[in-house]
Amino acid sequence: MSAVSESVGRRMTLGYLADHYGFGLEPSFAVDVTITALADEVDSISPGSLYIPSKSVDVERLEQARARGAYAALVPHAMREVADSAQLPLLFAEPDARQIGALASDIAGKPSGLLAMFAICGEDGDEVEANVIRLADFLHMLGNPVGVISASGSSSLERRLDLRHPIGVLDVQHTLAVCGEDGAAAAVVALNERTLRPDALQSVGVDVLGCVDEEKPQSLAALRQAQRYGFAAPKQLKVTTRTEESDALASQSALGQRDASERRLSLAIAMTLAAGVRRGNIKSALRVSQELR
């Protein structure tokens, strides 16, 4: 699946897309045609989709898209000569990754702006995914419904999501929108190549960025690697790593076992502190969890 669908998005006219994004449109009278979904693969097209080919496209592929229910297609300007023979409206542009991300976010309802967005990077992909699970569990312990995007298992609250990783920007926006619709307050994303394609996080704002690597050179390298996914971040964003305080809190909890599990809990605590969660709330959650165990 590589699509943003109507069930979690909003409707847009071709006229809006032409005006807002500067796309050309043929025929011009198709301004009121309404798009309800985006798809970058023919197999993922649903009725009402705008087809945005991820690879080269020709008239035959456009006909396949139309037969699947596409209402329009976004193609390069070089294809203007086929506009008359195409059986569906065409938007003309050579959008870059940033523009595709903005369009996908727009039609999905800009979901990352409605969620507290956490992302974790690191040189070890397995450890990144393990820390994503630990952070999601800890946020849930604090009373936050959570969505997860990770190759080891993406989910919306308790519901497993059927995604074929690595996923691109359309699937990311769709997944975040689904999480928002399900009532999630936060989402946690694994920043590794098993989970995401390059530029998959275009137009996704990250509030807290954690790194599993403790040494500064490693954390800086991991940050540079993470930036290939294109996420947006405030200028004051700093990479969050374990701290003496988070280590102490983790070691005092029965959840910590002075091993990798305790280190993951420590990073989860450090990231929730960076998000503005009060220390008292964190201590209370750890105490309740200890009592339950």
Can you tell me about this structure?
The structure is a single chain. With 293 residues, the protein is of the alpha/beta class. It has two domains: 3-95, Udp-n-acetylmuramoylalanyl-d-glutamate--2,6- Diaminopimelate Ligase, Chain: A, domain 1 (3-Layer(aba) Sandwich); 111-292, 3-Layer(aba) Sandwich (UDP-N-acetylmuramoyl-L-alanine:D-glutamate ligase), CATH 3.40.1190.10. It has nine helices and 15 strands. The chain has helices at residues 14-21, 59-68, 97-108, 125-141, 169-182, 216-226, 244-252, 260-274, 279-292, and strands spanning 3-4, 12-13, 24-26, 34-35, 37-39, 49-51, 72-75, 90-92, 116-121, 146-149, 155-156, 159-160, 186-190, 208-211, 239-240. The chain has a seven-stranded mixed β-sheet, sandwiched between helices. Strand 11 and strand 12 (159-160) form a beta hairpin. Helix 3 packs parallel to helix 5. The longest helix has 17 residues, at 125-141. It starts with a strand and ends with a helix.
Shape: elongated
Fold-level CATH name of the largest domain: UDP-N-acetylmuramoyl-L-alanine:D-glutamate ligase
As a whole number of angstroms, the C-alpha radius of gyration is: 21 Å
Distance between the termini: 40 Å
Instruction: Give the helix proportion (percent range).
Output: 25-40%
Write the H/E string, N to C: EEHEEEEHEEHEHEEEHEEHEHHH
Give start-end ranges of low-pLDDT stretches.
Answer: none
Look at the structure and give the CATH class of the largest domain.
Answer: Alpha Beta
Sheet bearing the most strands, described? 7 strands, mixed
Structural category is alpha/beta
CATH superfamily of the largest domain: Mur-like, catalytic domain
Q: How much is the average pLDDT? A: 90
Domains, number: 2
| Number of β-strand runs | 15
Alpha plus pi helix count: 9
Strand order of the largest sheet: 12-11-10-13-9-14-15
Q: If classified by CATH, what would the architecture of the largest domain be?
A: 3-Layer(aba) Sandwich
Strand content: 15-25%
